[in-house]
Amino acid sequence: MSLTILGIESSCDDTAAAILRRDGARVAILSNAVSSQTDLHAAFGGVVPELAARAHAEMLDVVVEQAVAEAGVPLAEIDAIAVTAGPGLIGGVLSGVMAAKGLAMGLGKPLIGVNHLAGHALTPHLTDDLSFPYLLLLVSGGHCQFLRVDGVEAFVRLGGTIDDAPGEAFDKVARLLGLPQPGGPSVEQAARDGDAKRFQLPRPLLDRPGCDLSFSGLKTAVLRVRDGLIADQGGLAEQDRADLCAGFQKAVADVLAEKSRRALAVSDVTAFAVAGGVAANRTLRARLQSVTDLPFAAPPLALCTDNAAMIAYAGMLAFEGGRSDDMTLAARPRWPLDADAAPMIGSGKKGAKA
Ligand code: KG4
Ligand code: ZN
Questions:
Q1: What CATH number is given for 133-298 in this structure?
Q2: Which sequence spans correspond to the domains of the chain?
Q3: Helix, strand and coil percent figures for the chain, each rounded to 5
């Protein structure tokens, strides 16, 4: 049986559209178009929701056309339209939901509202064929949580950040040290020549049981060390930056590795996966892989960061399970995957994330 799904994503700062097709057991990504707003927000040090929403509204048609052209599949051959209906910045989510409703109505095709976090969480099921239940560590600029993925629409959150997301901390540390944005890649590069042991940095929440995380204190500790160095020597040398980046990166990896070990110990899963932009970090990937003998999956970067292929896939699985939405589908700024988990305190610079 063949099934072709158009996915649409606009919950943060990427406008994306993708087409996936299932033929029997095989699912192929026929196209995966993304238009990033990084340059638009660069001068503001974070995503400006109003600018983001307008840019999404302008780019949605363009990325859908691009996805259709790349896939070589006419819109008439699309069987259903999946769209991120939350959580995220409400203006962006609304733009995507409106565009998807227009397409669904115009083409006379079913509409499926997808939880953005479910998209991330189901990606290793697509890329590495992981079977349920598996543990997912989602680490990006806006998200940080441990999810046990029990099935297509069954998730248990085992813990998450109580303040910043790790990508947010990487970005702030880069800013503190005068390194370019996005901070993750520049901190990783600077850390290559650094001595991770030179500065004592905290390992937040390691002394407390459970799988919750915190990154705000670590970032403040980097700020204090930086200010101390500037007071003592009048500025930062290249080596100081490298050592601070290496120390910070090691602290993040230590904390995520130990909390992953704890999450694995209580989750009774068959595999461990990591997703989100921070999963691009090589030191971190290696550390996470080393915490378990279970199969380990880290999807390719284009599917780790925000994209519409993951939305199309989550929509495809939901649709195959018999779920679709009607024109009352609402855009939701908050939408926890695990409705039974206590709400997290932190939100992250990219908007409230469940
Ligand atoms: O998933 P993503 O593209 O967007 C969302 O946050 O939703 O993640 C972007 C985040 C940024 O904070 C960026 O600094 C971080 O991922 N990042 C990295 C690396 N590459 C990107 N963090 C650490 N190491 C990297 N190599
Ligand atoms: Zn995301």
A1: 3.30.420.40
A2: 2-123+303-320, 133-298
A3: 45, 20, 35
